[in-house]
């Protein structure tokens, strides 16, 4: 095959993608590796394509496309199938689509109220998914890592049962993380300081340890949400977590915005609360105290109410809150109105600064979105200085509390897109 310069279709024509990609190829082997990854990303981000369509989208010559597709088929990463067209006349088109059933990535999240794990095949199909209600701060790191290890081993067994192989694990942690050292530096909501997350997992998993990576939970949630909304030509997006902690993940021009030292997105600590309530970060008046889950539940019910019980699954507690709202409980409805107003206040500031195409509300914001979405949209429209909020849509996550762990699985699977032949053959 003649070496051809890699075209840039990361996240769509001319766009970068939220996940990191290797530097520009410089020799024949790396050019071919880059072109293999390019085809895989195209099929992931834009769906099945004919060979002619792939050539048009990438700018690569058809003989090169045929050679690349042949190799990807041999690796089990793509397959060809005839297009299903009901009522159409003529021969159906032969399309190339992602396969990748042999490879899976695992994502793990530790949050205030739960630990969770998900295993995804290359196409994003779930192979394993489970969440456990855990009071993470009260349990302490050792007990939490024991439970995480149990989930990871169960995910590895589920992957093995399908005949697939795990290519890596992405760990979603709240707070400030050091991705190079694999350490959660500071996560006040769960009481973690200088916790060597990846070393803890390696110690427990032993020889079964897959390749590990650590990232902030909101950033991984943003990656997972971007893979959902990019089909709508949305490439500038703010993802906002709805947990006890409130964080943000920013996608700008199709890229994850990490900041100069990787600490972007700590939006929950904007000083917006005029009451100056104390925050776990040590300061007062943080936005998180106004719209975080703890703030909502404090308004909804007294401390001895079951909605405050961390041993109960969070979805169950939120269902209880939703039921009270549907029944017209005035205290609950007032709490939701307060959260919506305060959420719109902070989002108005962020939309003015970032001018995103969309804001995606995750976590409990999505679960209670039927009560929050419309007043938040109206509040953002009222507050943003640009006409029509600068074209920004406020959307509810379709992934809910699974977004960070799914983002972790996608982070693990990114290895396949960086080096398809090396990882698939490994």
Describe the model.
Helices cover 42% and strands 19% of the residues. The chain has 426 residues and is an alpha/beta fold. It folds into three domains: 28-98, Arc Repressor Mutant, subunit A; 103-220 and 404-425, Nucleotidyltransferase, domain 5; 231-401, Nucleotidyltransferase, domain 5, CATH 3.30.420. The strands form four sheets. It has a five-stranded mixed sheet with strand order 5-4-3-6-10. Strand 11 (237-240) and strand 12 (248-252) form a beta hairpin.
Task: Supply the key terms.
five-stranded mixed β-sheet, alpha/beta, 15 helices, globular, 42% helix, Nucleotidyltransferase, domain 5, 426 residues, disordered N terminus, 3 domains
Annotation, overall tally of beta strands? 15
Instruction: Report mean pLDDT, rounded to a whole number.
Output: 90
**What portion of the residues fall into strands of 2 or more residues?**
15-25%
Helical residue percent band: 40-55%
> How does the helix and strand content classify structurally?
alpha/beta
Summarize this, please?
The chain is an alpha/beta fold.
């Amino acid at each position: 095959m003649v070496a051809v310069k890699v075209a840039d279709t990361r996240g769509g024509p001319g766009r970068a993608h939220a996940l990191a990609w290797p530097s520009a190829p410089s020799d024949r082997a790396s050019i071919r590796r880059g072109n293999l990854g390019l085809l895989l990303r195209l099929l992931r981000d834009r769906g099945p394509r004919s060979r002619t369509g792939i050539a048009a989208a990438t700018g690569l010559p058809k003989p090169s496309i045929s050679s690349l597709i042949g190799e990807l088929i041999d690796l089990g990463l793509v397959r060809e199938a005839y297009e299903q067209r009901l009522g159409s006349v003529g021969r159906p088109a032969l399309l190339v689509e992602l396969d990748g059933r042999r490879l899976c990535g695992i994502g793990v999240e530790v949050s205030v109220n739960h630990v969770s794990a998900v295993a995804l095949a290359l196409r994003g199909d779930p192979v394993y998914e489970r969440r456990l209600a855990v009071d993470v701060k009260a349990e302490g790191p050792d007990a939490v890592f024991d439970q995480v290890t149990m989930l990871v081993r169960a995910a590895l067994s589920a992957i093995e049962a399908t005949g697939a192989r795990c290519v890596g694990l992405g760990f979603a942690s709240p707070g400030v993380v050091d991705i190079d050292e694999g350490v959660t530096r500071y996560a006040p909501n769960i009481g973690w300081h200088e916790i060597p997350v990846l070393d803890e997992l390696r110690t427990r998993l032993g020889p079964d340890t897959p390749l590990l990576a650590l990232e902030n939970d909101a950033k991984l949630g943003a990656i997972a949400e971007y893979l959902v909304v990019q089909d709508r030509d949305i490439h500038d997006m703010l993802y906002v977590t709805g947990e006890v902690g409130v964080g943000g993940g920013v996608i700008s021009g199709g890229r994850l915005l990490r900041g100069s030292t990787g600490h972007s997105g700590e939006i929950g600590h904007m000083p917006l609360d005029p009451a100056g309530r104390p925050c776990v970060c040590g300061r007062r008046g943080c936005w998180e105290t106004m719209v975080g889950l703890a703030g909502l539940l404090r308004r909804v019910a007294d401390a001895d109410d079951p909605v405050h019980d961390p041993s109960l699954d969070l979805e169950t507690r939120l269902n209880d809150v939703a039921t009270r709202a549907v029944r017209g409980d005035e205290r609950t409805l007032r709490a939701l109105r307060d959260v919506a107003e305060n959420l719109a206040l902070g989002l108005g500031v962020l939309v003015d600064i970032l001018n995103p195409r969309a804001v995606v509300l995750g976590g409990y914001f999505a679960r209670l979105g039927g009560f929050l979405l419309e007043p938040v949209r109206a509040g953002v429209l009222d507050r943003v200085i640009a006409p029509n909020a600068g074209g920004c849509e406020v959307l509810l996550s379709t992934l809910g509390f699974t977004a960070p762990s799914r983002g972790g699985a996608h982070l693990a699977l990114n290895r396949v897109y960086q080096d398809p032949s090396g990882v698939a053959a490994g």
